[in-house]
Amino acid sequence: MGTDDPVVIPHPPRWPVYDRAAADRAAELIRRGRSFDYDHGPEIAGLEAAFSRRHDGRHALTLNSGTSALLAAYFALGLGPGDEVIVPTFTFLATASPLFLLGAVPVLADSDGPDGTVSAASIERAVTPRTRAVAVTHLFGHPAPMDEITALCRRRGLALVEDCSHAHGSTYRGRPVGTFGDLAVFSIGGLKLVSGGMGGVLLARDSRHYDLACLLTAFKQRSERTVRDPRLRRLADVGLGGNLRISPPAAVLAQSHLDRIVELVAAKRANVHRLLEPLVARPGLTGPVIAPHVTMGGWYDVVVTVDPERAGFSRDDLVAALRRQGVKADVPATRPLHLSSVFTGAEPGHRHPYPPDVLARRFRHRRGDLPAAEALHDSWVSLPGPYFNDTAGALVEPYRAAFHAALDRLGAAGPPVPAAGGAR
Ligand SMILES: Cc1ncc(COP(=O)(O)O)c(C=O)c1O
Question: What family, per the record (predicted)?
């Protein structure tokens, strides 16, 4: 192999990884014909009870995805045509896209601060007389500033939905995320720290929201058991139009991660700290900025910020150099929504629900509209966080060696330079 050939680092299986007991339980369910459940069997009831216990006794409902859970949350709030919901621009598309189905209008708010989350100030700039609700995403596992956001929502009479999909196990002032909003949603699918392959969880403070979400999600067998309000329970025979249920095998797989969440969060924290050391020791590179009163749980994406002036190379140079050393580095896959198709003028759906003035105001974004989120996305290198959920940390040392090699090749091995105004 020539010295310029790309290096290959053997990667272990990517998350979600399951222990033997969890895989056996899922297989046993399949063998017993329990690959689905119209009712409220022990696997689903158990996962909901565990989420509820971890989140101040909130009403917990499992669904087939985080996207479905967001749809159910917005549906339960009664959002419909013309209602505006403030959504961070820096989030996964599903924080906004279920609103299209309801005819409600996502209004995008800029990031505020180094973690990429929204703040009360950035939300407030997006408020109009039509605003009914606010959604926040605890981006990449860093909690948004919930004190000021809950105060704003109270003051303005707005409902609050937390999207906790990146933030399993994260806390804000000692309280778990998911306990601040009227409703909270966790994806428990794909690469999330708690993952059943496909799945979502909705948490509701108000049992009426839970009841409406349940009627949207489940059929008679379950709704008759778990919908509390007798007037709403009467609707259980027909439901409210969705079939968004999780499967028992997915529930037991997710439960196996939830049962180990303390261990998984501790392992992830240790892995990420050790992983980032060689990078953040270099001038111009900084690791995630974590506020003193929060803890990071899920840590969905692990990002490093490149300041090209001080580093002497660009973000894209670093991505390319890391990739040559076998690191699965990239720009963050989660990118500001206002630069995506629907928000830059491609109409949302073949029969979109929005009148021309709404399309003109909310779906014709251009670069520069929400500059803080753009600047963060343009400066971040994403490392493949889900590989570091692995409690053995198998990739940490190979990646550290690759980081040293990449930085050496970029010629960034010199002594630190002063932050500003000094000689370079
Ligand atoms: C912030 C956020 N919200 C919602 C979702 C949607 O979850 P799901 O893929 O389970 O539908 C995701 C998925 O990646 C996400 O990252």
Answer: Belongs to the DegT/DnrJ/EryC1 family.
